[in-house]
Amino acid sequence: NRFAxxxxxxxxxxxxxxxxxxxxxxxxxxxxxxxxxxxGITNEKSLKEAFARLQQNGSAETFRWLGKKAKDADxxxxxxxxxxxxxxxxxxxxxxxxxVAKHLKEIGTTAGQTVQAMSILGRMTPxxxxxxxxxxxxxxxxxxxxxxxxxxxxxxxxKFRLTEEEVSFILANMEKASLLPEGRDKNILLAEISSxxxxxxxxxxLAQIKGLARNSMLFxxxxxxxxxxxxxxxxxxxxxxxxxxxxxxxLISKKTGVRTVGLPSVKEPAKAAARGVYESFDDFxxxxxxxxxxxxxxxxxxxxxxxxxxGRNKLSRGMLKALNVLDRTTSFLLDAGDRPFFEGYxxxxxxxxxxxxxxxxxxxxxxxxxxxxxxxRTWQDSNRxxxxxxxxxxxxxxxxxxxxxxxxxxxxxxxxxxxxxxxDYSPAGVVNALxxxxxxxxxxxxxxxxxxxxxxxxxxxxGKGIAGSLLMVLWGALADKGxxxxxxxxxxxxxxxxxxxxxxxxYSVVINGKSYTYDWAxxxxxxxxxxxxxxxxxxxxxxxxxxSFQNIGTVGNAILNALQMGGNxxxxxxxxxxxxxxxxxxxxxxxxxxxAMDAPTQFSPSFMRQLTQLYDDTYRQSxxxxxxxxxxxxxxxxxxxxxxxxxxxxxxxLGREMKRVDNGIFNVFLNPANVKEQNTTKVGKEIYxxxxxxxxxxxxxxxxxxxxGTGEDKTSLTSHQRADxxxxxxxKVENCIEQLMVKPSYKNLxxxxxAELLTDISQYAKDYANYKVVGDPISKNWKKAxxxxxxGIDLADxxxxxxxxxxxxxxxxxxxxxxxxxxxYGKNLTKKQKAYLWQQQNTSWKxxxxxxx
Length: 853
Prior knowledge:
By secondary structure, the chain is mainly α. The protein contains 39 helices and five strands.
């Protein structure tokens, strides 16, 4: 065989300078009657139009077709492509056939047509497939030799030629496939050929870097559960949308004569979903990829980029083998979480269309509609929004497979579609359907060029918009009852206290004294978050006008925050977090540096991080002030069980180390929500009550600063020093207020007086922590309080006496007033301590007059 010998066939050589198609061949188009070849690809109308174009314009039409941008292709262009491919095969012009097949594949991926790689490959002859396979290897080789040295070229030349065994395998598979109808058995044979060819092409280093990052971020049980749960939770909304869209579609069909939507069924879609699970496992077992989705939401690709065959030595081959197993497992788990839903949606849509239109065989339009519906409802469709997001990443990557753009946007398609869904499932979606989709449908209907896809787009988007709007009413009722919460307080110190001291998490639901975040359940979570924040604004007295216009930024932040709060969540973190980091600093350069420092964490296995959480139930700090490298190192250490406990703990403002709730296997590996327990102390409740009554933020205990002092006296704190600072300050506040709360004299204070007293405690605790951690001197305001503590006088007693020494909180007391204050508020003090406080009030007072001597 000439392929095995490494020589080009003579017919390929003879056709190198020949035009792709000649006028003579076009005369045969009208006589083409093999409609079976085109079944499932295009409808009869498109087929006739394609024949007419090619017959009238000859080779000029062929060159026009090859030059047409994939994104602008329509059903007629698809039909033309398959006609051209078949004609070239019949002539034995396999070089031209390959060019057409490649362009068809691009159309199928870019334009969203039902032209998938398997469909194209399945319509090749054995000889055509053999040529196609070798041409793919030749193209890869020509690309690689531009960047490889002469030694590599000589050593690897033969690897890009098909062996005798491989040639026999391809021919045998194609012979078997030609006898089979469209379906899984045929797809398996074709996928085996694709896998064979793909495994002969060495992956680029950048592709392997991308693969490492992808597996590090996605290989963990929570990702799989969030994926499945997200698909599951949106199903009832989609079913409701179909119920709403069906009567609208029926009404429109009286004019168009076509039905595109019907009431959902259960039995057949359920069988299809089960089949999807089996097919995912069967692909994994066979090491092939038969996905018909074309979505590739997690950017897996056709085969693993870790091929042991390309290892340089035994060690590298072993590492590649291990990575290959990991990559295949990750791909299988992700596919198994999507394919059942895809198959269910596809089957339901196709069966409904066939039943309502009273046909026994699906048309190309029906297949296209069902495919697009399944892609959209599993967040895998390509649209202008997803393409623009991907374009941004490609631009930042300078056209490479991995680069800076991949750090900002590790994933694009699904995250972009999830944010788009916030509009689709809302009143804005209703407006869009009526203003745009309906207008296009009516315009094209009047021109006689309307398509079933246009009708489907209108009724589908209108149904989703109405269903989403009704769901927003439900979210509003739940938010009004306090069942779901919105964002935390706008002030970060208040939000910190609510979350870490009170256990009130933003975007959460409280069950049995524990709050569970719902922000991972996208896109419903983003919608619920917006409504919850809107309700919160109304309750805060901002009014409808303020909430909808003057606080548009607040609503926008609610979307961003809801999509980012989940921490490990795949989609939200991958899409918006990178942008927030890039543009969230005072200068763009700082954002670039921060992202660059975060890049290594993309390669820190998320599964290992979960193991670390099981081993270490304490939340840890990783940020180091003005030390980007130190912060990056800490983030990597946080994901390793051996090193995590070396990091400083996170401490709340009452001095308690922050612990994970129920740190067992379920919450660590399976529970998609972040959990916090509402176990605040009496002191925490008292502080918050005084804050709510007065609105005085200063009553809240201070958050550990990143530095102490100013100017030349400025001292930066490490993460461990901040933890120590927070413990010292928080415990001082906790102990002092705990002592105050049992005193009748404190209970009788007015709310403003309590606020002043709690503010004093917070300020003193801050000064005290500065002194203990970095040796910063106690300020003049609190020096006497500190000295009194050294005499064994509780801060609570001291502050009560000092603040109310003249009976009304004013300064300048007499000896008699001081004596009364000490006796009233210092009943627990010894005589010696009372004498000390009396003398401390005014050192000019004579010792002999001290009533406590």
